[in-house]
Amino acid sequence: MTALMQGPLVALAPPRASRRPLVGGVALALLVVLFYVLPTPYDPNEQLADGLSPIGFPLAPGWTHPFGTDPLGRDELSRAIVGGRLSLLIGVVGSLVATAIGSLVGLLAGSTVGWLSNGLMRFTDIFMAFPYLLLAAALQSVLGPGIGNLLLVVGAVSWVNAARVVTAQVRAESSLDYVAALRTLGVPRWRVLLRHLLPNISPQVMVLFTTGISYTILLEATLSFLGLGIQPPTATWGNMIREGQAYFSSAPWLVLAPGLLLVVVVTAVSLISDAVSDRSSKGLKGFR
Amino acid sequence: MTLTRPRAVVPASGFPRFLAGRLVWLLAAVVVVVSATFVLIYVIPADPVSAVLGGRIQADQIEAIKARYGFDLPIWQQYLRFWGGLFRGDLGFSFATQQDVGQAIAARAGATAALAVAGLLLSLLIGVGTGVFAALMRGTWKDRAAMGTVVLGMGVPPFLMGLVLVFVFAYLLPVFPVSGYGSAAHLVLPALTIGLTGGAYYARLLRGRLVEVMDADFVRASRSRGMRESAVFVRHTLRNSFLPVLTWMGMDLGYFLSGVIAVEAIFAWPGIGTLAYRAITDYDTPMIVGTVLVSAVAIVTVNLIIDLVYPLLDPRMAHR
Lengths: 288, 320
Fold this sequence. Notes:
Chain A is mainly α and 288 residues long.
C-alpha cells in the first residue's frame, strides 16, 4: 500500500502508545494521597480563633491557609480535602452501583429473547425520557438527605447508559463463532454468558464504570450545589460552592478552590477512562 | 446455535406505520414517566400534606386540605383523578403558590425554550468548530491542545461554569447583565454557560467520528476521483460524521433540562428550571409532577423529530 492510497500521511504513522494513562493515573494517585493519606492541616469543621480578619472577613489564600478561610473562619483547604474524600467515595461507589444495575439489566436484556428482553429494552428506552436531575432531585427530597440515599438516587438515575451499552455488547458477542462453538460443545447458556461472554465485554464495562465515576461526581456536586445532596456542616465541593456563592465578589476563593479541585479530579478520572477505552478498543485506530 | 435468535425482520410498512409506532412509543414513555413520578412523589412520603404543613396548622385543617385535594382517597383513585384532570388539560394547583400548574408552566416555557435554542446553537457552534478544527489538525499539538481543553471543559459542571462567567463578566468585564430576563443581552451569559459546557461533548464526539470517517474507503475514493479536498470534507466526511452528533442532540435535551435547573437558578432566569427547583424544595407535588411531565414530553418529542430527520442526513436510514 502506498502513501498515496492512504490519503493524509498522518494515517500512516503507527499509533503511538498513549501517554494518557500515565498522566491521569499519576494525577489521581496524587489526589488520593492528598485526600486520604495526608492529614488535613486543620479540623475541617473547627471555627478557628484566628480564621477571620479583624473586621470578621474570611482570610484570603496565604501561607497559613493556602485556600483561605470561609465566612465561619474554617480552613478552606481542610474542608476541600474532606469534601474530596466524600466526592471520590460517592463517585466510585455510586458508579459501581449504577454500573452493576445497568450491567445486570443489560445482561438479561441482551441474552434473552421475547417479552423479557423487549420489556427491559423498552423500559430502558423510556427511562431515557426522564429528566434525570429532576428525578434525582425529587427522589432525594423524598428520601431525605444522607449518603446512603444519595447513592440510591445515583444508582436509580444513572444505570440506563450501562444497560444500553451492555445490551448491545452482549448481542454483538452472542453472534460470534466462539459462542456458537461453546453451545455446540454443550456448555449451558448461563455458563457461556458468565464465564466466556462477560469476560469478553468486561473492558467495555470498565469504561462504563470509569466514565460513571466522573458523571457521578458531577451529579453529586450539582445536587449538593442545589442544596439537595449532602447537607452542611459535612463538606462536599457542591455545598461548599453553594455556601461560597454569596461571597463570590469579595471572596472568590470560596467558589474557585473547591471548583478547581472538582474540575481537576473529574478531568483526571476522564483521562483514566480514556486510557481504559484506548486499551479496550480493538484494532488500529491511530491517534485518537 | 447462538445465545439469541436474530430478531424477526419487520415487514416493510412505510412511513405512516413508522410514525404511528413512534407516536405509540411516545405516549407509552409519557405514561410510564408520569406514573413513576406519581408513585415516587405520592406514595413514598405517606402524607404529603403533613410533610408540607406539619406543625404549622391544626389537625382538623389538615384533614380539610386533604379532602380538598383528594388525599383522603385511596391511592389508585388519586392516580385516576390525576389522569382525568390531565385529559381535561388540568395539572392541578400548586400547594405552595396556589397557581394553576399548567398556566405556571406555560408562562415560563418561553424563557426556557429561548435558553434551550440559544444554548444549543452555541453548543453546536463551539462543538462543531472545535471538533472540525481538531480533526483537520489531528496528530499535531493544535489537536492535542484543543482536545485537552475539551476534556477539561467536560469536567466543568454547568453551575460552576455559570458562576465563573458571572465572576468574569460581573466584576472584571461588566459587559453583559449577570441576572434577570428581558433583553437579548440577558440571554448571553446563560446561553454561553450551556454552550461552553455542552459544546465540549459535541467537539469530542465529532472529532472521534471525523477521524474515523476521514480514513474510510469512500472518502479516499472521492478524493481519488479528483474531488476537491474541501468538497470531500464537507459533502462526505462531515455529513457522514454528523449522525452521532444528531443522536447526542436528542440525549442532550435531557442533559440540558437538568443543567438548566442550576443555570437558571444562578442567572435568575424565569424558566421551567427555577419553577421545578422551587417545587422540589417546597415539596410542591403537583408542580413537580407537572414539570417532570412537560420535560418528558419535550424530550420524547425532540427525539421523535430527530428520528424523522435521520434519513435526510443518511438515506440508508430511510423509515421502513
